[in-house]
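Incident log, support desk, overnight shift.

02:14 A customer reports that sequence design results differ from what the structure should imply. Their input is reproduced verbatim below. On-call engineer (initials T.W.) acknowledged and began investigating.
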């Protein structure tokens, strides 16, 4: 496997309403990984349109949300010179490689995808074919760049396994041709998921057992990246808790999902461990902890929100970043695709 140098790829859908969960669970991790890895971060606009337009918001919203995710990446500290930042639809290989993978993946594999069942709901006949094919497009995203590591949330674990299955089956199905074309015994790497641990999973402020989500009908369930200081303070004040004071040890957070979540958010925002936070706040009432948490959140998020606003005022700059990133991404992905053409037997221009 060593012939594949370490490379990180991850994607975020431009579906609007970026919140603290996206920030702590994904974007902050993306920023950190830049110091150890060669990183590619993609705004997956082609994935966004797999659900009905009433959900993704239509063309104007898609453009705005694509720029918003890009602005959040940059504001949080993703360096678009060191890393590659681009939107998926600008690199046509994502679609082309999906077709080849459609012919490798089996119906039985896709029929087992939990997220399709959840998103399609009861009216499966009316789901788009794109929604069904979503995990295959995701495999193409990753493998077009021979990515070896993919940071994602727990909910994407099954999709990552499908990516691995597709890579393995492609390597097997075309083993002879792969060798003949000089690619040795594997064309694609078998990608490792880097699953976001529970420490960085942010739950709803109204129900500590549910993920913080943009689709929760209550805006009080989440902190949006664009919320102002007053809104942030008010949302934490109203956050669901239990009547007990905070425990001094991790053990005491068991069976207390809301307390666990707020301590986790404090830890995530301050870059400390939960046990460290409990050492400071053990014994404190929520009436004291919540304002401290709100202050910390405002202190950490206000500069990000401010920078996002500044960047979004200049969409030409953001589009320039995406353009440049797409050019660099295309150079890698086209080379992969030419290799796939050779391996599969597609005659192509040289
Ligand atoms: N499905 C991912 C999500 O909703 C987004 C995504 C698309 C992605 N392509 C990807 C994540 C490739 C990692 C790698 O979170």
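02:41 Re-run completed on a clean worker. Output:
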């Amino acid at each position: 496997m060593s012939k594949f140098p370490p490379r990180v790829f991850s994607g975020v859908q431009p579906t609007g309403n970026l919140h603290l969960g996206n920030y702590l669970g994904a974007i902050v991790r993306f920023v950190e990984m830049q110091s150890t890895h060669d990183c590619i971060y993609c705004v997956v606009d082609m994935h966004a349109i797999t659900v009905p337009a009433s959900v993704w918001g239509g063309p104007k919203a898609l453009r705005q949300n694509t720029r918003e995710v890009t602005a959040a990446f940059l504001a949080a500290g993703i360096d678009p010179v060191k890393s590659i930042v681009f939107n998926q639809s600008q690199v046509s290989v994502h679609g082309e490689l999906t077709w080849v993978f459609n012919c490798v993946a089996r119906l039985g594999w896709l029929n087992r995808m939990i997220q399709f069942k959840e998103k399609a709901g009861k009216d499966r006949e009316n789901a788009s074919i794109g929604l069904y094919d979503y995990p295959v497009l995701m495999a193409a995203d990753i493998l077009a760049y021979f990515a070896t590591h993919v940071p994602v949330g727990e909910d994407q674990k099954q999709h990552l396994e499908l990516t691995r299955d597709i890579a393995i089956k492609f390597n097997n199905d075309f083993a002879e041709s792969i060798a003949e074309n000089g690619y040795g015994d594997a064309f694609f790497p078998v990608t490792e998921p880097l699953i976001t641990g529970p420490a960085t999973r942010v739950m709803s402020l109204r129900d500590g057992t549910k993920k913080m989500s943009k689709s929760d009908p209550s805006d009080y369930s989440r902190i949006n990246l664009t919320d102002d200081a007053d809104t942030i303070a008010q949302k934490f004040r109203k956050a669901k808790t239990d009547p007990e004071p905070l425990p001094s040890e991790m053990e005491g957070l068991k069976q207390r999902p809301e307390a666990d979540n707020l301590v986790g958010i404090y830890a995530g925002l301050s870059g400390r461990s939960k046990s460290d936070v409990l050492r400071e706040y053990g014994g404190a009432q929520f009436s004291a902890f919540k304002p401290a948490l709100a202050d910390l959140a405002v202190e950490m998020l206000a500069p990000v929100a401010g920078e996002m606003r500044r960047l979004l005022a200049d969409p030409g700059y953001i589009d320039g970043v995406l353009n440049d990133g797409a050019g660099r991404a295309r150079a890698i992905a086209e080379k992969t695709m030419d290799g796939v053409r050779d391996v599969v037997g597609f005659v192509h221009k040289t």
